[in-house]
């Protein structure tokens, strides 16, 4: 996989190519109607940006309204593929590669910004609708209200949006994308700058979470989901593979307890797949891990240790309720004798 860096050796994220939205009341071009059974969410369980949409789909109870496709964690030269499915094809879309949806939508320039997850595809036509991950989670939370489960939480409450946006902005640059900037830096200077900004922000978040259970307000919001998916990967991947190693997440105080609290909340830990996460990063980024060896550790059981964050007050879902426990594993498990 080639990694885009600029002249200073800093990683440059390419951004989404398809920014259409799926909304309750479409107005004009680029807006598609919310409709149950019409769309398919394509994720990799390895990907932190896709993981956000998986958590929100589950918290909102949108499983019956929006179907789910899970890619193989290992991309090949044509990127994400449906190699986990029978005959290597997604059973609904009939595709072997996610790029087929990108090209169906835009045969000329569809692959210009790469083929990324999360992506939403229209089932009947196979057209890529959007790969705009920050908008996808907001829209699943707000625009799909009619099809959400009773008790679905409000993840982006109107009165808190400015504060959530502000927290998200710093978390995006220094943490979510910061770990990539640290790991993909191609000069010492670019690496040190990203590393410094990352740990300065984690220190700030750690202090913020000393006396409050969640990042903004008294309940889980979009801000917690965005931070969680990076924290979940921190010790397993970013600490070693991306050289984010001033300390482990497990060596923080409040931040580690906060991450465990979320992990133990339905919708969070049950959507974390450490196997896909570790195999994806260590086997795909051959530029920084040429042997493709996947580390065995760390032991994940620490995520289940008590966190005592209830003592800070707050309630995870506000006036809402937790989602039902998962009926089965997120993905088909390999046969036991493998
Ligand atoms: N590309 C998206 C973010 C999503 C993303 O980077 N997903 C990764 C997986 S973690 C991916 O699919 N990368 C493949 C690629 O961009 O070609 C963006 O920056 O707007």
TrEMBL record:
Active-site residues, as the UniProt record annotates them: 47 (nucleophile), 180 (proton donor/acceptor)
Q: Taking every annotated instance into account, which residue ranges of this chain make up the domain GST C-terminal?
A: 154-281
Q: Which residues form the signal peptide?
A: none
* Positions marked as site (Lowers pKa of active site Cys): 238, 281
Question: What keywords are assigned to this protein?
Answer: Transferase
Q: Where is this region: Disordered?
A: 299-338
Q: Under the cellular component aspect of Gene Ontology, which terms does the record hold?
A: cytoplasm
At the top level, the lineage of the source is Bacteria
The answer to whether the entry has keyword Transferase is yes
Write out the biased-composition intervals (Pro residues). Answer: 322-338
Q: What's this protein's name?
A: Putative glutathione S-transferase
């Amino acid at each position: 996989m080639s990694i885009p860096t600029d002249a200073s050796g800093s990683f440059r994220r390419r951004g989404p190519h398809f920014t259409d939205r799926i909304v309750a009341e479409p107005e004009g071009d680029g807006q598609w109607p919310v409709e149950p059974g019409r769309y398919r969410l394509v994720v990799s369980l390895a990907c932190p940006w896709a993981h956000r949409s998986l958590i929100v789909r589950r918290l909102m109870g949108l499983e019956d309204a929006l179907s789910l496709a899970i890619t193989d964690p290992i991309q090949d030269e044509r990127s994400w593929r449906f190699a986990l499915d029978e005959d290597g094809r997604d059973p609904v879309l009939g595709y072997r590669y996610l790029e087929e949806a990108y090209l169906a939508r835009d045969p000329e320039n569809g692959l210009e910004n790469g083929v990324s997850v999360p992506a939403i595809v229209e089932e009947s036509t196979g057209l890529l609708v959007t790969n705009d991950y920050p908008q996808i989670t907001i829209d699943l939370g707000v625009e799909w209200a009619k099809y959400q489960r009773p008790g679905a939480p409000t993840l982006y409450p109107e009165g808190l949006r400015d504060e959530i946006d502000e927290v998200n902005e710093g978390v995006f640059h220094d943490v979510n994308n910061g770990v990539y900037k640290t790991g993909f830096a191609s000069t010492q200077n670019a690496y040190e700058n990203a590393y410094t900004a990352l740990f300065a922000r984690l220190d700030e978040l750690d202090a913020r979470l000393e006396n409050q259970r969640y990042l903004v307000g008294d309940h889980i919001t979009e801000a917690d989901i965005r931070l969680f998916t990076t924290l979940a990967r921190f010790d397993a991947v970013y600490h070693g593979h991306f050289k984010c190693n001033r300390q482990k997440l497990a060596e923080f105080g409040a931040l580690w307890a906060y991450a465990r609290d979320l992990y133990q909340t339905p919708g969070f830990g049950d959507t974390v797949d450490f196997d896909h996460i570790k195999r994806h990063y260590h086997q795909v980024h051959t530029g920084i891990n040429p042997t493709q060896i996947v580390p065995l550790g760390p032991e994940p059981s620490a995520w289940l240790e008590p966190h005592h964050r209830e003592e800070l007050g707050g309630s995870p879902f506000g006036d809402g309720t937790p989602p039902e426990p998962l009926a089965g594993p997120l993905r088909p498990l390999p046969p036991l004798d493998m």
